[in-house]
Design goal:
Number of strands: 6
CATH architecture of the largest domain: Roll
Strand order of the largest sheet: 1-4-5
Number of helices: 4
Number of domains: 3
Helix content: 40-55%
């Protein structure tokens, strides 16, 4: 016999009966305890779900960032092979004799060069000429030094070959001369 039955049986034997419509007092503590336990468990489940949701959101952001970084790296590797070709176009077009500058063939070559620059731009590649900047070994490669001039020591004085960035990463450092 359970404790609830014992209490009801004792009340019947003594003649004490609960008032009609009144809730029995017997199971009150048990129901309240169960309700509190269920609420506590529901709160734990809610907190666990919220943590899992936040972790999943962070996971998605991390994966998207890694995909973008991988795209930049792989695109950079492919485009890095094009940079010497662009350099050759630059040298060729700057050394054209004045008497053939208006030749349509030269215009066509110039158009190819512009298309190459457009392709770089479309893929997030930018060139930079660091003349006047302080030497930064992460962005510049020094191939010589200059003693003349009034520039401060460590300043880039001449750019021998432009550098390129993809996003904020150096695709190719600029070849420079630096004030000693």
């Amino acid at each position: 016999m359970s404790a609830d039955e014992t209490t009801v049986n004792d009340a019947v034997e003594t003649g004490d009966t609960p008032a009609q419509g009144a809730a029995p007092v017997v199971g009150d503590d048990s129901a309240r305890t169960q309700l509190e336990a269920a609420q506590k468990q529901a709160q734990e489940y809610l907190e666990g779900w919220q943590r899992a949701r936040a972790e999943f959101t962070n996971y998605k952001k991390r994966i998207e960032r890694e995909i973008q970084e991988n795209r930049e790296v792989s695109m950079g590797l492919a485009l890095k092979n094009v940079l010497p070709i662009i350099d050759d176009f630059d040298r060729a077009l700057t050394s054209i004799p004045d008497d053939i500058k208006d030749n349509p063939w030269v215009g066509g070559v110039s158009m190819v060069q512009r298309k190459l620059y457009k392709m770089l731009e479309d893929n997030g590649v930018t060139s930079f000429d660091p003349v006047g900047e302080m030497f930064d070994p992460n962005r510049h490669e020094a191939i010589g030094s200059d003693d003349a001039g009034d520039a401060p020591s460590g300043q880039v004085t001449v750019t021998m070959q432009r550098g390129y960035l993809i996003g904020d990463r150096v695709l190719r450092p600029a070849l420079v001369r630096v004030k000693s």
